[in-house]
Design a protein that fits this description.
The protein is of the alpha/beta class. It contains 13 helices and 17 strands. Helix content is 38%, strand content 24%.
Amino acid sequence: MNNKPVLIIGAGISGLALCLVLIKNGYPAILFEKEEEIDQPGAGINISPNGNAVLFQLGIKDKILNTADKPATIQLKTYKRGFTISKQNLNDDSERLFSYPYLQMQRKEIINILIEEINNFDPNIIRTDHSFESFSENDKSVLVHFNNQKSFEGSIVVGCDGINSTVRKIILPKSENKFSGIIAWRGLVDMENLSKKTQSLSSTVWMGKNSHFVHYPIKKNKFLNFIGTLRSDKWESNSWHQIGEKEELRNDYKDWHTTVKEIIDNTDMIYKWGLFENKSLPSWISKRSVIIGDAAHPMSPSYGQGANTALEDSILLYRSIIHFKNNPEFALKKFQKNRKLRTQKIQKASKLNTKLFHLNNPILRMIIYSGMYVLSNLMPFILIKSKWIYKYNAFKIKLK
């Protein structure tokens, strides 16, 4: 790798984490964001042990723990009667089995922590108001162009620009996002507006017919974050900044438990969007460009692995760059080889989770729920089922 910087497009979690790990280890990087101000709406995210393995080893453990909520338990409930199918310890078992906790926080909180760390090194590394347009590459460098007439030369360009990635469209002009047939709702509720019973709930998944509803506390129990998904034939925008209508959300969950209705009734700002997917892309790379995170492998939210796989990507790309610093093209190939199969498996697991949460057949629901109820009284099956995901440590996994 030459002395030219790694050029990162997009100030999301993957871009910021990649930027931070590079500069902390002496590699030049510049991060470009199209917005004038980096501001994320109040969505909550799950940071599972594999994601915290990255954050803690980036040196921000204390900041994360001081900000995040650490759920004691996770429970699965039936959508109408609220019968508890499973209630299991989450963090004691998580730290015992995987050495790292399971945390929940606002997306913008983790974004702000990463920005602060980068700015402590150099406040000029992050360049806002730079909307990426195109790049050209040769054997020695890549030249990136922005709509403000500025251009920058670097060693490689990394597309961390989300599901509507412009970098991906240049690498793979024929790639298209396909509507998954599922829409999602999300919102935040002030805990003070909820009943004591609802306030006392830890992470909860309500499982219904062709739909499910998840909620958990964030901001040190000041707010309750929720996301609901349901099947729909109607196409929706894939922008999760789109405002939704409360009456429509109420109607979608009109037959659900009173707790779910209470949460919806006390939500002020509601967002609605369509879940889109990109079937396994033939490649994430060109000679000196690569896409990571949602740009490469968008995830269904039902396993909470979007941010976590993005964090893994950032570290595996960094490690590939430093291991093969004299051959960037080979470094990108190695990164893809080490990430593609795992992310494909997690994408499939996320879809299976959605199917489990959305069971429509009442007989099948009874059989599967009964099995889950029995298992939950014998072992921490939720964590055991997810062991292959959560035990992954991006800093330590052997490069193939």
